[in-house]
């Protein structure tokens, strides 16, 4: 009986050792390259698993599908000076398709302005008079940034001159918009 137990123990030890060896082999040749981009044996490079691990380490930033975007509209840039009389207000917007980017910078020459950056959909089913406010501030002398349209529509600024003196807003834009202009009843001019 003692011989049976030691034979079973030996088989158990051999099975455990074999399982540890296989697990270590899988860790080195598959898990480390695929999850962390670490490839001590070169097997991950041959199988393509190292590239997967490298992309994961970068957060997918190097994946061309995640960073490249074709745009059906032509790229545009503009620099516009917008004059506001004392206490005057106006809206100035770009017409953008969903997912299209707009880069912008504007500065105020004169007194500060109140502004709200917002968008209004022009396609689809939306509640009557719906608009989405993105950013608002009092006493601003300028802003800069980038914006990606969450829906098809007119996206841009409402400005109100907070002083009684005339002021000029210098707006610079770049992006894939179809129109850019002052809102006069029916949309961007």
Q: Which terms would index this structure?
A:
2 domains, alpha+beta, 189 residues, five-stranded antiparallel beta sheet, Jelly Rolls, 28% helix, 4 helices
Q: What can you see in these coordinates?
A:
The N and C termini lie far apart (98 Å). The protein has a five-stranded antiparallel sheet with strand order 5-4-7-2-9, with no helix packed on it. It has a four-stranded antiparallel sheet with strand order 1-8-3-6, with no helix packed on it. Helix content is 28%, strand content 39%. The protein is built from four helices and nine strands. Helix 1 packs across helix 3 (49-57). It folds into two domains: 2-67; 76-182, Sandwich (Jelly Rolls). It is elongated and about 100 Å long. The chain has helices at residues 2-36, 43-47, 49-57, 64-67; strands at 76-84, 89-96, 101-109, 113-121, 132-140, 142-148, 153-161, 167-175, 179-182. By secondary structure, the chain is α+β, with helices and mostly antiparallel strands.
Supply Rg.
30 Å
- Strand fraction: 35-45%
Instruction: Look up the CATH topology of the largest domain.
Output: Jelly Rolls
**Number of separate strands:** 9
Main β sheet profile: 5 strands, antiparallel
End-to-end gap: 98 Å
Q: Which overall shape is indicated by the principal axes computed on the Cα atoms? A: elongated
Quick structural gist:
By secondary structure, the chain is α+β, with helices and mostly antiparallel strands.
């Amino acid at each position: 009986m003692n011989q049976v137990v030691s034979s079973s123990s030996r088989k158990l030890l051999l099975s455990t050792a074999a399982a540890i060896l296989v697990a270590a082999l899988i860790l080195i040749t598959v898990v480390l390259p695929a999850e962390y981009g670490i490839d001590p044996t070169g097997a991950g490079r041959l199988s393509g698993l190292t590239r997967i691990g490298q992309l994961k380490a970068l957060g997918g930033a190097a994946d061309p599908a995640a960073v490249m975007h074709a745009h059906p509209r032509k790229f545009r840039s503009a620099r516009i000076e917008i004059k506001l009389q004392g206490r005057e207000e106006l809206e100035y917007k770009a017409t953008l398709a969903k997912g299209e980017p707009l880069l912008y910078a504007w500065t105020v020459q004169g007194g500060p302005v109140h502004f709200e950056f917002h968008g209004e959909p022009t396609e689809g089913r939306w509640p009557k008079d719906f608009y989405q406010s993105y950013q608002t501030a009092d006493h601003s002398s300028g802003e800069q940034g980038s914006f990606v349209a969450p829906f098809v529509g007119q996206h841009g600024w409402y400005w109100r001159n907070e002083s009684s003196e005339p002021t000029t807003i210098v707006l610079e834009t770049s992006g894939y918009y179809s129109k850019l202009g002052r809102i006069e009843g029916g949309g961007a001019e």
